[in-house]
Each structure stands twice: as C-alpha cells, then as structure tokens.
C-alpha cells in the first residue's frame, strides 16, 4: 500500500487547508487529487496527488480548472417543473418536497397503467463514485422497474480482452515506465487518460524506450510518438494479424511460451499464413514497410507493453479487433517480462461487494433488460428494443445525458418529446436531456459528498470524502433515491436508510478491504496483484490456464455478457475462429464515400465540461476534420460550412482541414451540446444503435457518410 498523508476534514471558515479526494469523471485514470480549501469554505487550486504512484502529480487541464465548474453561474440550484411544451425552456421553481412527490406520483401512475416495467431508471458514469452512481439500482430492483444494460462504453473492448485472457486484469500499468517499448493502441491518451503518458514518457527518458501510437488520425498522442501508425478505422485486427504473421515467419514468436500458455498456436500459425503485410496494407492503408518495421520492433523488444484503449469499443468489429491486438503479446511471450504484456482494464482485481448497495438480493431475473444505447428505439416503441413488452412511460435519469450522447439522436429526440412520457432528470447543469424533462433536480458535485472509487485504468481503491458544503438547495444522488424509496413504499428493504459513509464501510468490510476509517486514514488502497497473477505466470483465467487464440464468442466469459433473456446480439456468427479482420464495419460506398469517427476532444469529457468557458474557448466550435486532398477534390476550404449525412440524418458544421488521417476519413472531435451546432442537432444524429456482436455496444466511431460543401443561403451564419 502506498504511504499517504492523512485525510483533511471538511473545510471550515477561518482557516486554509488541503483536502484529498478523487476525480469522479468517466475516465480510466480516477486521479487522486489534492484540493486547496480556502478560509471561506470553498475550493481553490486542484492538482494531482504526487504521493499516489499512478497519478504521480499529473492531472488533465480540465479537472485542474474545476473551480470554474463548481462555481459556474449556470449551475442548477433549485428544483424546477416544466411549464408549457417539452423543450420550450419554460420553467417554474418548486420545492424539493413537491418535486419528489410529483416524481413518485408519476411512477405510481405509470406502474398502475402498464406495470412496473413502464418505469426505466436510466444512469451511467457521470460520476464513477460507487454510492452516488449505483444506488439507483437498489430502487430499480426493489420496485421491479425495467433493467438497464449499460452498453455505451465497454462492451466490445472488455469482451475481446477477457475472451483471450479469461480475466479483466493485467500487468501493473506503472510498469510502462519499466518498458523498452510502449505501444499505445486505440486511445488518445494525451486527451483522455494523461497518466498513461506520464509513465510512457518516463520509460523513454530513463530507458530510451520507443513509444508507438496506433490510431486513426494524427491526434495529440500521435504527436508524442516515436513510431506513428495511422490506419483506417476498424482495421486494427488486420495490422495485428500481419504482426503475428511476421513473428512466426521471422522467428520472433515464442513457441515455448505458447506451448505452455496458449490453446492452439499451431492452428493460429496456419491461419496467419495468408495474413501477410501485403494483405494488411491493402486493408489498413499502412505501408508494407511500416508494418514490417513495427513487427520487427516489438518482435525484438521483449519488454513491450501493449496499452490497449477504448477505441476498440467504438467499432462494429471491436471485440475481434481487441482480441487480435491482445493476441500479439501472447505470440511474442511479452507477458513474461516486467514492463511487458498487454493491459486494458483492472476491473477484476477490486472485487467490491456491492450487493447491499445495489439491492441484488431482490433482483428479479424475469424483469426485462433494456439497452442504454437504444434509448431512441425504446422510447419510440420499437418492439425488439422493448423486448416485446409494454412501453416506457416514466424515467429517472442520473449521471448521463442521452439527448446528447446516445446514438440515433433523431429517434432519441422524438422519444423524449412524447407527451405521455414523464422524465425526471437529476443534474448539475441544464443539459440537453434536462431541457426536455418534466422535473429537473439540482445535483451535488464530487467535493460536496462522500463516495468510494476504483480505478479501472490503474490499481487503486480511493476515498472521495466530502470537502466542502454544497449549496443549501442542492442534493446528492443518494438523497433522491432514499426519498423516492420512502414515497414508493420500499424504504424498508435492505440497503435503504444508510448514509454514504455507512455504505462505504459495508462495501469495504464485505470485500475484505478494511473499513471506512481505514481508508480515510490512508486515502487509497493499492490493490495491484503480484507479478505472477498480473502477468498470468500461474496461468490465464481459464480453468486450464490457457490463453484463447480461438475463443468461444458466445459461450466464453465477458463482464458485459447479456442476460439469458436477451441472448447474444449482432452478427456473432461472423466472429472469427482465430484473430482476423472482420468486415462487419460500415464500409464506405458510392453513396457514402467517407468514414466518420466521433472522437473525444481534449477539453471535454463526453458531454461534461462543455458548459465551462475555458473548455469551450479551447475547443472553439463544432468542426469536422477533413484530409486536405479530400477537401481540394470537393472544393472545400478551411472554415467552410459543410453537410455530412447518412440514412440516419444529416447535420451542418464547419470544415477544418487537417492532414494526418487517411483520405476518406472524417473526424468530429468532442460532444458539443446540440445547440452549439448550426442547426441545433449534434453529431450523434449520424451514429447507429444497432447492437454489436456478441454482447452489444454502440459503434459510435463506425459510420459511413457523405460530405458536401453547403451552399444554402444561410451558410455564413456562425454557431450560436
């Protein structure tokens, strides 16, 4: 366990101090933070905790500016009820009591008319705090409301990784600093998880390590690379197969390692005979020479650390692509070495027992499970999305903004504007989703409540204690769940009636991690397994200890496995026996000659921080990045207004000519609010919600589109 200073109590007027907490946002890093607390009970400067060995004193710029968000003049401060038409922007202030009464009454009426499944509690990772995020599940299970399949983020990446390893864990990510080659694949770490760069750059400075970046355009992480591989979207598996082909061909494959630790190396080698660099070059757009050089680098560098990101979760073939990239480390035997192997997420190591918090004892397996990513289809009455049962007519939404982030936005908007749908949104700002709600409740921010965190991208369990008092009229997520439970008659169920610290205490004790007071005294727990377990030296996570080159895509393990009542999804029969490129992506065609990726920006985090002035100033405006040769062919110049579209719809935004992607590839960075766009519709008008094989997911970077210069009369109008 790391040595750490003691927790500082809640700020009180009359003195200055430093508080210690955790960044709550949807990011694998879960950075440990030191927060200056001022004499008047407010927060000041926010910085990374230098005594946390993963955060290492470094945080992203947007979190460093958190005072701007906490004290933003546009922050929601009082409960509000809609006046007039949905989305018209007319509100009246109501009391907390009246607002909660109205929500409970709407839920009771929905249940009376259509059954308990008519109510759909909807949430995600706007906070990664275990208590404030997951308590909504306890209310769901107690009331038998519709279940929630969280599919917007992890499904393809987690499934692909675990299908190979049998477990969601890997080498200590701090070992990147001990590597001789760090391969950052499928993540723009500079923008989305800056601590990856901290450890990779340390390896370069101290060991002369090479940093390789594999992505679809010349993003900020690519600019830090020694070796840059810019490939076509969704073609990662072709590169991985060619690298393994070369490893077998040139004698870099560790046959002794595979004999002991893998299922069918001979079958894999035979399969890869035709997966040559020439074959991969035609698919990926990479040069044959570039593929050969990369394969030689990792093949001759034993201590190669493959840092595999969430970009794999954004393509329709992402599960197979993650598995293929992961398999490279096994063919090379990289797992054997400190500073080697492949890492994606450490979710399995924490083993937090949240059964009481989430009310799993009274979960009913017969209750339908609805897909988060298909919220538009659910709310517009799609029979398959509704599991061939009744409509959803009431929702409570916490920690997410589906009117902005969900695919198929025109369906989403149509659904949320239904007159017979009641929506309550508990939020910090008037988001796109809050704007179409019936009741809006103001929510606390992370320094204003207690919570418990775990870091998927690293190895710490961390305490996020309350550091400052919230505004008097703002309430926690837990408060809302508790008050609704009382009004709905389930507050006597186990798990209700407990405060945040008690929940944290119970989770830690049930999980064998001590108590709340223990964690309070130490700030965090370093839960990293020993080298043998982290590197699978004692065998991979399957019963026979073998890595699976040939996984059972439907019957194999996955943290995101769909319930039996739903079954496997998408074209799972097309998934390959061995690692391979699977052409189930939206391939460009004559009518849609471009591929569009909706990549994350540096100053926003999903739809968070899009309200802060400094983030907006740094990002500028919604734009689409176009490769200059494509722009010249279409007579588009920098700053032109262009239209992009497909069968789902079309939007207009400004062109930004940027070299560094493949011709035919468009990039739209950041989730801007819908009204920041020229016509009030955001980029997710163009993304699809069809489920990805084998267990669902939203392929938001996988879109075929057309592009044209816009010549409509109002093309000179700037964004609002």
TrEMBL record:
GO terms for molecular function: iron-sulfur cluster binding; metal ion binding; molybdopterin cofactor binding; oxidoreductase activity. SMART domains: Molybdop_Fe4S4. The keyword Magnesium does not apply. Residues 16-74 form the 4Fe-4S Mo/W bis-MGD-type domain. Keywords: Iron, Iron-sulfur, Metal-binding. Signal peptide: none annotated. InterPro entries: Asp_de-COase-like_dom_sf, MoPterin_dinucl-bd_dom, Mopterin_OxRdtase, Mopterin_OxRdtase_4Fe-4S_dom, Prok_Mopterin_Oxidored, YoaE_C. PANTHER family: OXIDOREDUCTASE YYAE-RELATED, TRIMETHYLAMINE-N-OXIDE REDUCTASE. Belongs to the prokaryotic molybdopterin-containing oxidoreductase family. This is Anaerobic selenocysteine-containing dehydrogenase. It comes from Neorhizobium alkalisoli.
